[in-house]
Sequence to fold (1549 residues):
Amino acid sequence: MKELFKRLMPFFLLAVWSTAADAQSQRITGSVTDERGTPVPHASVVAKGSNKGTTTDEKGNFSLTVSNSVHTITISSINFQSQDVPVTGGSISIILKVDASTLQDVIFVGYGTQKKSNVTGAIASVKAADLDDMPIQRLEDALKGRTAGVTVVAASGQPGSSDPAIFIRGITSINGSTPLYVVDGMPVDGGIDYLNSADIESIEVLKDAASAAIYGTKAAAGVILVTTKTGKAGSMKVNYNGYYGTQAPARELSLTNATQYATLRNESSLAAGNGLVFPNTNLGTGTNWQDAIFNKHAKIENHEISFSGGSDKSTFNASLGYYLQDGIVATEISNYKRFTVRVNGTHKIKSWLTFGENVAYAYIRNQAPFSENGYFGGPLASAINLDPTTPVVETDQTVIATNPTYANNASLLIRNGAGNPYGISQYVGQEMSNPVAYVQTQLGNYGWSDKVVGNAFVEIEPIKGLKIRSNIGTDLAFWGSNSFTPLYFLSATVNNTSTNNYTRGFNRANNWVYTNTATYSRRINEHSFSILAGYESENLSQQFGSTLTYLGIPATTFSEASMNYSVPTASTNGYGYENQPYTIASAFGRVTYDYDGRYLFTGIVRRDGSSHFGTNNVYATFPSASIGWNPTREIFWHSNRIVTDLKIRAGYGINGNDNLGPFQYESVIAGAGSYTFNNNANSTLVTGYAPQTIANPSLKWEQTSQADIGLDASLFHDISVTFDWFKKKTSGMLMQVAIPGYVGATSEPWGNVASMYNEGEELQIGYHKKIGSFSVDWSGNVSHIENKVTNLGATAYIVGQTFQASAYEVSRTEIGHPFASFYGFKTLGVFQNQAQINSYVDSKGNILQPNAAPGDFKFAHLSGGLGPIGAKDRTFLGNPLPTWTFGTTLSLGYKGFDVKAFAQGVGGNKIFSELRRLDIPAANYSTAYLKRWTGPGTTNDFPRLIDGDPNGNFSNPSNFYLQDGTYFRLKTLQLGYTVPVKLSRQGGIDKMRVYIAGNNLLTLTHYDGFDPELGGGLLGIDRGVYPQARSYMVGANITF
Amino acid sequence: MKYQCLSAIALLGISLTIGSGCKKSFLEGSPVGEELQSTYYTSPSEALAGLVAVYHNLDIETASVGDGSYSNKLGPLNSAGDECYAGGGSSTDMNSWQAWNTNTQTSALDPGWDFWDIDYQGIYRANLMLQVLAKGTVPGLSSALQSRYVAECQFLRAYFYFELVRLFKNIPLTLQPLTPSDMYAQVQVADTAVYSQIETDLNAAIPVLPPTVVQAELGRVTQGAAEALLGKVILYENNTGRMTDAAAALDKVYSSGLYSLMPNFADIFSPANKFNSESIFEIQHTSTQDAGYGNWGNIQGNVYVAMTGPRSYNGPIYWGQGWSFNPIIPAFANFMYGDPRYGVTVANIDSIVTASGGTVSYTAGYANTGLFINKFAPLNQWVNNTAGDPHLNFPNDYIEIRLADVYLMEAEALVRGGGSAPSGLTAQNFLDMVRARVGLASIPATLANIYNERRLELATEGHRWYDLVRTGQAASALAFKGYKDGTNNILPIPLAELNNTKLVQNPGY
Fold:
């Protein structure tokens, strides 16, 4: 039908022209370009005071014949500021300025798009242009610091690390706050690590409930919509984007050297009444274990090549990507490779019938055989805790021959090329072992995944404005691991002396979603409206896996290991699992209305049925409404240079979260104890079966309701401002409910109990200016959030993370405090003498810290009750989650040169730094320990050292371990040069940009660990996090 | 255009059909690899498994509910009475038993906690099975079995409530499984309402329960057990006007002719004589489970046996790794001394040590008296040393109701109610039979003599504390243990039960 219209158009125009020709007429010609001189096609050219107009052609040229009374023409195009140009006669050159407000952008809102100017919800958007030329390693990083209200906390710097924790407007639930990822309409499970950042057209974050309600029961924690690039009609384009670089640790921990270590160990041992550990402390510097495992030249490279093009009937965008990152810690066993392929296509089969598909495949292979933030062994934890007196390689043949640790395990020792065994610590045991030797035991072991995410759609447009679309998407993932454990001896506890084993794991998951939508949009005079109606069914349950182990195969290394070796059945073991059913069926609708762009309204309702909900509440309804007002379009508004555009909006909505396990509304039948029947000689035990708990057929979704008030403004044409205030309440959070014993259930059932809220403000400012050849783009954002738990039902508090072997937890969730707040003792300095200890008494005169000696911490007696100091004297010590997050991007251009800088940071949070293993008295020390108390008056901040730690100076979690987590980090700094088009065209290249870049160049922080950005999963607890690398890269972006 | 519209409608139609077609069944997946309550109880074996789960709560030696520690019944009851001290390894070993021993129990340190949780769990399971069986929809289950299971559940529910109402008096009475909406709304009812429900259940069960069971079913409830329990319940209700009812119920046990006193008193308690002729309701244990501590919560050996044995004992007859709980109070031993049942009741380890001339030894536990419970003593011959932990695998049973007890209860009911039993026997006849079995001459069937006889006959079998309380002797008999009349006659409601509920603490606690 459009075709028909286009064909008729010339006749129509001819008719217009012929009537116009009768009057006095003039012919206006001209060309429209952007500030870089690139032609702007399809720009609208309208004669002011008449209804005549045209559009520019592909080369940006236009020609228009109008009456002589026309003195001004208005040029406008999406993404550019409209311009009025006087008619001067002759050809006019018009340079359109990019509209900094970006209010004209089209953004994705879920099951469709909306003009940004008409959006009434709080949606943050990151466009391809923001990511182009940025060496982003993980797609989630694209959101970090660029979108107000979105907190991205990396799990660690390990290549292919766990998914970063992403909090959209704070912690949404005690049961997890992972947002919903929707890639090209397909809800994707297991993160978006499989995506290649060069394929991304845009990422939209639906932050408020009013926008996210369209995703109903999956949207409580916010929604991240990822849209991949489609091709554009026109000549075929090939684009290469790549970089190559080197990475190094940004910082090492300051640990004691051998001499310092020996001194501290002696002191600690003597204090406890034990003997000298090191009669001779003059041991030099000893081994720096960090140097032994850190790689200061770890490779990173990324290559992406894409092909796009098409005709007006069919367009495509295909890409190949390869990404490799070596880890900066123990590179041989810490690295990541990803290979991606994508084909996106759209085909207009008939004028009214469109078919399209997006298919992505990713293969990931990574090695990460040790914890990225843990103190139970692995190279990093060992490097922190191993004593510096142990050599990396033991070369003393007398020791090797006589020391039983070596002599008794000679055949199992890991040896270097020269045949000498790697050093084994005589002091530090438990899970700690020589990290260089440890690496040798893990060589080759890897994890892998194959993932295919694809969708295909058919869209028909039977009448103008009505689009009916049917989309089927699938997310198919296979993943597993492959590992060989040889025979080895690293220490008395870290060894495998009996039999080697070879293990392969295999898992498969397949989710599919089937979506049907109908959209009708129409404009009648000043009234524009659109209606969306759809339904969707989703199956998320198709997952199963198995693991098989062969014991005692005839191999000594991973490369020799194979499952082709036959081993007796008794030497194999395996297990498998499969997921319980999980399905969702939904119907949803959205109505948008605007009157002349002045008054805006969006209403959404979604009804979801989930197999996770109880039988009384199978269906949940999630409504939302939002309104907007654009006063600058009012008649009374005096147009001025200051506020050039303004939109005020408000919205309220309800979202849900069906993040509970299958059949939790029901009770599972399980063995309930047995009873004995028959006489003694034949007594038989019969097992009884009973429900595990009380069925709760009313179990339902966690509900998040959110109010949002915001404004989008454009000032002086150059500055865009977006501000939002929100309050998000989560209620009915799922908890296991404490039930009275008279109910008789074995275990506690799940109930909708707890609530919390998040309240905050977000500000995003952008500035764009071009002065001659000089251009400036700056954007900055800051957001502030407060989280508070308001109800936990009958539960007094939820214990958070534990603290090594301590009975006291590090964090707890309690009413009136932020989620997972740090909890522990408060220190009041160090006792300088016995008199101070003796005078620190409770109301009955009992000494509060009877185990204390001078040099020990004085803990605050917060309970005020009778002593001694104990559990009840603990208090809340700080928030693990930032209350402030901020980021800024600066881009400067001068002719072909550009400089881009991106920095981000957080504030208001604390980090609990527990790097040293307390149950290993001989573990190495941070150099901070050198400032310990050694006698009256030496210090009031750091206690004495004593093995056994009778006063709990170190074993009590206290504010002593907490540090300010605020940081500001120059994440990326880039210097680029674009070869002038004239020059590059000679080589057949449309665009060529080369750059050098650095990541994580500078971090401003008070935190003394590796990295203040940590603990996505552990919430602010540093147990020796794998640090983020500092990297330097050279890259190129070539289009031809 | 027409064609386009048709195509569009067809596409829309197809997609709607697929979508809506999916809808209902689409959200109702069935679980893989596990059973749900809503789909269980659909075969005879599943119904039986549900019933066995109720039986399980008759005896949980090691609880995963309550305070989570050892949870047999005799330990705390014997600690509370005037026959034994709590004993054990120290003054804090089995802390709640120690508290009951000194009548210092509190809501937070409550020997009743395990009873409460275990009995109510049993009640829940019985309620659930009664609900399931009331629907009459267990395919393949014969109606005879169906009624028998109902009767067994009624009996067991009555048994659990009887224990609770005696221990706590003021308890919530639930006859249906509670739901999340009403679980916090329960209130305590008058004890008379509980007793009335117990009688209702037992009266319903009696005609249905089998008089005897086949060997493979030994341990299952019989008619005689229900009749005996009914008589006992009415007796405990302490209403003089209903003593004839009690006697009538108990008399049915006698007249059934199915039971007889064991000729040799000592034989009653031996695992070699399980379900002997005197046993009416027996809670069984086994040595064949090979239980280890990993079986916690489901240990079917008799752990109380290990608990009462002498500590680090080195000598004949007795197993050497006991934990010395419930040492017998010398005053009680002295009272019994001379009775033919003394030797079966009291193990005088000190005398063995003395007689051995130094070859036998043991370590004195807390509150040691040298006198140990003999009816449940850990004899070497019953130790399972093959697998698991021997502490957890003694096969000794608790005979919850035995004929001598029934005779003495009937004698008491007849004395208090007057007249003679339907069988024509008198209180004197019943008392005489009990005494005659151990070779004792007749004495007048006065209430005092009957109570005295109970004390001698049933010592350390878990009846004494209840007897003292219900007969009003506790205040004087337990004065030496700090017993406060009006408070310590019942236990405090466990603290955890008061959180978020409408329960009211018992007076004095």
Chain A touches chain B through 71 residues (CB under 8 Å). The CA atoms of residues 844 and 866 of chain A lie 7 Å apart. The first strand of chain A starts at residue 25 and ends at 34. Chain A has a mean pLDDT of 89.
